[in-house]
Amino acid sequence: RRLGDKSKIYVNAVHPGAVYTPMVNTFYFSSMPQFFMNILSRLLWTVEEGALTGIYLGVATDKIRSKEVRGRYFHPQSVEFDHPHMKDEMLQENVWKLCEELVQNFI
Q1: H-type helices in the chain, by residue range?
Q2: Which of 29, 50, 55, 80 could bridge across to 19 with cysteines, CB 3.0–4.6 Å?
Q3: Whole-angstrom Cα distance, residue 88 to residue 90?
Q4: Is the separation of the CB atoms in 39 and 16 below 8 Å?
């Protein structure tokens, strides 16, 4: 919205989903018996599957441009998802300000 409809910049958000990574194994479920870890590893996305949505948004540029896909939230496997927070303009403004604060020492 801030960049305007004529911008050549397309900004979208992506959530990789529940991905089975070493971090999940080490930090969150390290005390679980191996039997449960084996089940969990089959229920969660692999690292490669978790990366698919981000890769899709990075390479499907013609489709994104032609359909004017901006400011959307994508959940695993490139599914557009209408999250209730995505239309909350006050929340958007707060996130924008936070991001500006976080990068101000680097730009």
Answers
A1: 22-23, 34-43, 47-59, 61-66, 89-103
A2: 50
A3: 6
A4: no
Q: Which two tokens stand for residue 46?
A: 């692999």
Largest CA distance in the chain: 54
On whether the CB atoms of residues 41 and 35 are closer than 8 A, the answer is no
Nearest to 71 by CA among 51, 57, 59, 60: 57
24 C-beta neighbours (distance < 10 Å), count: 16
> CA dist 15 to 6, 30, 32, 66, Å?
26, 24, 26, 23
Q: What is the pTM of this model?
A: 0.62
One pLDDT digit (tens) per residue for the chain, 107 residues: 778 778 888 888 888 888 888 777 676 666 777 777 778 778 888 889 989 888 988 898 898 889 888 888 887 766 667 777 777 889 989 988 999 999 999 88
Tell me whether residue 14 is exposed, middle or buried, using C-beta atoms within 10 angstroms of its C-beta: 0 to 12, 13 to 18, 19 or more.
buried
The pair phi, psi for residue 79, each rounded to 5°, is: -90, 120
